[in-house]
Amino acid sequence: MDAYSGYNQIRMHPVDEDKTAFIADQATCCYRVMPFGLKNAGATYQRLMDKVLAE
């Protein structure tokens, strides 16, 4: 896993993708991967890294 762009490699649950919707240039977009600015993004990333690196 590339830690430099770590947040952008964690897939959002399909049900939650619509909750991250935003409007840009007359189109409605939503994130399919976890964006950096979400409230629990840091905790989710840390929990995933703990599971990946656990012995």
Structural category is alpha+beta
Measured on Cα atoms, how large is the radius of gyration? 13 Å
Distance between the termini: 17 Å
Number of domains: 1
Number of strands: 2
Mean pLDDT: 84
Query: Which range best describes the helical content: under 10%, 10-25%, 25-40%, 40-55%, 55-70% or over 70%?
Result: 10-25%
As laid out across the biggest beta sheet, the strand order is: 1-2
Which ranges are low-confidence, i.e. pLDDT below 50, for 5 or more consecutive residues?
none
Our estimate of the beta-strand percent is: 5-15%
Shape: elongated
Largest sheet: 2 strands, antiparallel
Give helix and strand order, one letter per element, not per position.
EEH
What is the count of DSSP helices, taking H or I runs of 4+ residues? 1
What does this 3D model show about the protein?
This protein is of the alpha+beta class and 55 residues long. The chain has one domain. 24% of the residues lie in helices and 11% in strands. The chain has 1 helix and 2 strands. It has a two-stranded antiparallel sheet with strand order 1-2. The radius of gyration is 13 Å and the shape is elongated. The mean pLDDT is 84. This is Transposon Ty3-I Gag-Pol polyprotein. InterPro entries: DNA/RNA_pol_sf, Rev_trsase/Diguanyl_cyclase, RNA-dir_DNA_polymerase, RT_dom. Pfam families: RVT_1 (PF00078).
